[in-house]
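>> received
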Amino acid sequence: MARRTTTEPSGPPSPGDRRVLSTGRVVFLVIAAAAPLGAMIGNVPLALIYGNGAGLPAAFLAGMLILLCFSVGYAAMGRRVVNTGAFYTYIGRSLGKPAGVAAAYVAVLAYTALTCGLVGSFGYFTRLVLLTENVDLPWYLYSAFALVVVAALGYRSADLSAKVLGTLMIGEFAVLLVFDVVAAGRHGADAFPAVSWTGGQVFSGSVGIALMFAFVSFVGFESAALYGEETRSPERSIPRATYIAVTAIGLFYILTTWIVVGAAGGSRAPDLAREELGNLVFTLMQRDGGTGLYDIAAVLMCTSILASLLALHNAASRYLFALGRERVLPHRLGSYHPRHLSPHIGSLTVTAVATVTTLCFAVSGADAYTAYAASTVGLGTLGVIALQAAASLAVIVFFWQRQDRDLWRGVIAPAIGFAGLTTGFVLVVVNYATLTGSASTVVNTVPVTLAVAAAAGVVVALRLRSRKPAVYAAIAESQLRRRDRTAAAPAPAAYRRKYCLVGAGPSGLVMGRALAQEGVPFDWFEKHTEVGGIWDMDNPGSPMYRSAHFISSKYTSGFYGFPMPAHYPDYPTWQQIRDYIRDFARTYDLPRHITFGVAVSSAESLPDDRWRVTLSTGEVREYDGLIAAPGVTWHPNEPTLPGAETFTGEVRHSVTFHDGMELRDKRVLVVGAGNSGVDIACDAARHADTAFLSVRRGYRYVPKHVYGVPTDALLAGVLEPPKGVSLPSDPTQLVDTLVGDLTRLGLPTPDHDLLTSHPIMNTQVLHHLAHGDLIAKADVSHLTPTGVAFADGSTEDIDVVLLATGYEYRVPFLDEGLLRWKAGHPQLYLNVFSREHDSLYVLGFIEFADAAYKRFDEMAQLIVMDIRARETGTHKADLALLKSDDTPDLSGGIRYLDSPRHANYVNSHAYQTYLAELRDRFDWPDVTETTYSAAHAEQEAPVTPERTEEVPA
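>> returned
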């Protein structure tokens, strides 16, 4: 009846804390979770009384085989989907989010019921043990002691160490093995009664309840999946460990229950169980093995139940915590303790439920073992069986239309598991009155609470879908397991088609690297004389200015396989980013592919998806495909302000701004509060005679550091907060708490949640506003001859108006009619593929609240995947259909601001997830830190320089 480990929601450990576990080590941890002594002493008597009597070993055999079939499907899905440690992850992925939330609610009820059952079990068995020492106290006092201990430890989220659990496991197995040996020696052939395997005995009584106790004895075996990210090869290690653990535990249980039945008199074993109840196995041990064996078993039994109770308590607490964080339960449950970093609200909730339940059974005078433990453990086990059955169904649905479906692993085995688990569930429900021993309708309809919990989960999910789509989108999220090139790379293709790549900024460089690695023939043109795009201030038209820094930290930025240097500051300067980009290009020998100083003047679509490209030299070439990486901050958006014709000052776009010294001794107005706008406003605050910042609406200004940690790295989970710091799960609440009331600085109240608009990563502007170096103004109404009139009726004399009003999306060498446009943005499939021209790709025309370079690489891989499909014909029709008709929701449930900038805004996580699904669908490897390691290694070795043929100027 005791359980130590369950599947529970949990995040992966930080990279520095990760250990590498072998298959054997995982098997050891899983078997340690099985609490074999508690299973035999606690479950066998009840199974003999309420189940199929002497046929119990057959029930354990059936349970083992059913769970092995379940494990086959569960492990198969685990090879493709990262398991976050909860059944509802798989259920939500395959059967839909409402089903996932229903499963989560059932899990909370099940694990809380199991916790209550162990509270009763501890009280019952501790009383039995102490009665031998003439200590006779009510069971509920011992249960109260267990509640106090577990409440204190659970409040701090303290788990027993693996060494302690391992020691308990070895001791428990040793005690049971000694009993098996001495009982077999004493009873001989009678220790293995043939009656246990006769049809009449196997199917006597209630087979369903016997199966239930068999299943509860295995609860925790699925925890092997929790260790997947700590093994070197989870695709192989976790299935193997699961099969070994289930088989080893199952065979041990079958052997021990068979010997218990034999030692208890074979077919007369149920009668002795009714007489001895929880003392049955203890009595047999003392009779056959002596007092010493009994004493050791008694102590281990109590410690085993207490350890299992703590583990179940913590599992239930963490479920409540996870569901509170996902806002499918009251958000307060998702708070963690600022010092202990524990789910303390969830822990207190579980403690309160267990306390009230214990009090009810104590006051009613019910037996702690046959009533309290049996009914609550029965309810909890029913819930777990239901979750396992639903997970089996989820596996079948997941693999049903997949090309990599294995008939046995993906269909037959999980179908057998589903059928067996469902049958066991139905049989237990039908015979629940036998289990409880009660004629009360109220008591025997307790299983209905599982249906109520599931229905409540569905209702909550549907309500969230309509009212809080962003919360709904984040429910039961899962990711496909990454597959590197060695595991999933298709066979090399012989490419005949040739492509034209335009641009050598960051997006162009990752595209060039991807094409070169794949062996795709291409010509590459860059109008400037060096790589780097906007980050090269010498590049004509670059919007770079001296004070510019990266708005994403070095921890989240950088190219795959080429992290930013460790000595860089948290937020590198523009010079450091320029140098980093150049180092990247040189490391992968990309400049040798580039024709510098030559622009593409125009590109014209030809029949058969070909392109006629005219170069700035006048030369005309034809290509089989065109890849544009033109960048998005080259073409300033310059609105004409009313009154500009009479204004005697200077109006200029921020693209012309390079140094704050330009603003000395001038009264400067910066219009626009984007990232560059507030940067330039800070420069104006430091250098101008007087500086003003005009904003149309309320923005949220995000600090670059939270408690000394880069904000983006903290929110992304790349870096941990300082010890003792409790962060709210809502980033809007976090920022508002840190920044405070913006209206006191003259700024409008923010009109949006943090994640519904592009983040403004700057709080220096608030510093300057607070010190009077910068003055906030309303939207511009019109210009006067000497200054500016604002929407609130105020006026100011102004010398320079700097328009930080953003940039227009343009592909200057393409006729605009070649693409469909909306709110100034081309309507591209996945912000990459032209829907009108199969061989036209645009890279970099995307915006999200995330570092861009890795996303560019994932987009580049999509292009290469499509190029391969065009070349080989494999998946070509499917990809063409997607580019034509697929319109995925990439918002992640977030309702972005209705503005031109956000017309094509995507949620980074939703975008990455969708791209991963496409790669999986079309058997394309994921982009990882090692994807380009071979190319990197080749460039580090001495090579013979290749000559790049220059286009005549």
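>> The longest helix spans residues 280-325.
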